[in-house]
Design goal:
The chain is mainly alpha-helical and 384 residues long. The chain has two domains: 282 residues, Fic-like fold, CATH 1.10.3290.10; 72 residues, Arc Repressor Mutant, subunit A (Orthogonal Bundle), CATH 1.10.10.10. The chain is built from 15 helices and five strands. It is globular.
């Protein structure tokens, strides 16, 4: 027998059309409780092991920035792609280096996601910062929506009007989230549960929290990205990862129809077990992706460093520039001068050595104001 996961509030739009808004029951699932049977227990153990291996991969390099810069932006790009943006990782890192972009609006969407995540991580890691809470998510949402499409839809504020998913209005929508008057209480219930002593494993709880957030849909825009960002924050908050190396959005995007189908199955029939299995499979896939990328990047940096050291015109600034490339994979001459704190001629010599060894590639095609990319690094992150 399907469990009841909520109730419907029926109203009349304009006094005529019936609107059925879904109000989810508080977590954890009940009547019956979530059944962590043999299959789910095995999947959870597999996912936990995969996340552990990803954490080890991130801890075994000289600098966390070798992976962190790229992994965070990869997640930001893909999470934004799910919502329809077209910006690529190359677009984003080029914009960060040059402040120029062919798709400025889409790039700004992605950069805002990075800003929102950076802000939220800093807050929850600080004794004086905001805890993981509705207020924190509102502050992250404010940064996510700053100066982009949807900036006029109450950035940083829990919605005060009805929203819907699919269709042209609440009356013909595929799904109608809770009425605005109950959203604050639903978010308060979710926040309380996140900080409770619930016996469910943290990885499972993160998956349940994501569904609950998406079902509440507390903002007028940007719910998908904040809901996926919430998973990242929870994994770090609960100590499963020390940094946001798990780009889960890629696995969800690969299986996007299943993703939406499982969200619907929870709301319609209470299939929390089906969702949990799907979520844990995506965690395994994403963690394995991350480990492979980390291993390739580690090998790439080692090979390029050895090749650069053998170059007859290598300089100390050149080696330092290579070490800075993972967190600055696109550079210009002014940026290199700034990063290295050296004169223009010294920075030119460093860039030339990296270009001659095939580490940097000139991408602008210009004679002046040239731009260089650590293309092999970016190719690993994009799977090319």
């Amino acid at each position: 027998m399907p469990r009841t996961t909520g109730t419907y509030r029926v109203s009349r739009a304009g006094g005529e059309e019936e609107v059925r808004a879904f109000v989810p029951a508080p977590l954890p699932p009940a009547d019956p409780p979530l059944a962590l049977d043999g299959r789910l227990t095995a999947l959870h153990a597999e996912a936990l092991t995969a996340v552990g291996k990803l954490g080890v991969a991130g801890a075994m390099v000289p600098s966390a920035q070798w992976f962190l810069y790229g992994f965070v932006r990869k997640e930001a790009v893909v999470s934004s792609e799910i919502e329809g943006t077209q910006a690529t990782l190359q677009d984003v890192v080029t914009f960060e280096a040059t402040r120029q972009a062919e798709r400025p609006d889409d790039v700004r969407d992605v950069c805002n996601y990075v800003d929102a995540l950076t802000f939220a991580r800093k807050e929850i890691s600080s004794a004086k910062g905001l805890p993981l809470s509705t207020r924190l998510l509102c502050e992250a949402h404010k940064r996510l929506m700053r100066g982009v499409r949807g900036a006029d839809k109450g950035p940083g504020e829990v919605r005060r009007s009805q929203n819907w998913i699919g269709g042209t209005r609440p009356g013909n929508a595929r799904f109608v989230p809770p009425p605005p008057e109950v959203v604050p209480e639903l978010m308060a219930q979710l926040e309380k549960w996140l900080h409770s002593e619930d016996a469910l494993p943290p990885l499972v709880k993160a998956g349940l929290a994501h569904v609950q957030f998406e079902t509440i849909h507390p903002f007028l825009d940007g719910n998908g990205r904040i809901g996926r960002l919430l998973i990242t924050l929870l994994l770090e908050h609960w100590g499963l990862l020390q940094s946001p190396m798990l780009y889960l959005s890629l696995a969800l995007k690969r299986r996007q129809p299943e993703y939406y189908a499982h969200l619907g199955a929870v709301r319609e029939g209470g299939d929390w077990e089906g969702w949990t299995a799907f979520f844990l499979e995506c965690v395994c896939e994403a963690a394995d992706d991350g480990v492979r990328a980390a291993q390739k990047l580690f090998a790439l940096l080692g090979e390029d460093r050895a090749r650069l050291i053998r170059h007859e015109d290598v300089t100390v600034p050149g080696i330092r520039l290579l070490d800075l490339l993972p967190s600055n994979p696109v550079v210009s001459l002014p940026l290199a001068v700034e990063l290295l704190g050296v004169t223009k001629p010294t920075a030119i010599k460093a860039i030339e050595a990296l270009e001659e060894t095939g580490i940097l590639q000139e991408t602008s095609g210009k004679r002046r104001d040239r731009v260089y990319a650590y293309q092999k690094y970016l190719n690993v992150l994009t799977g090319e």
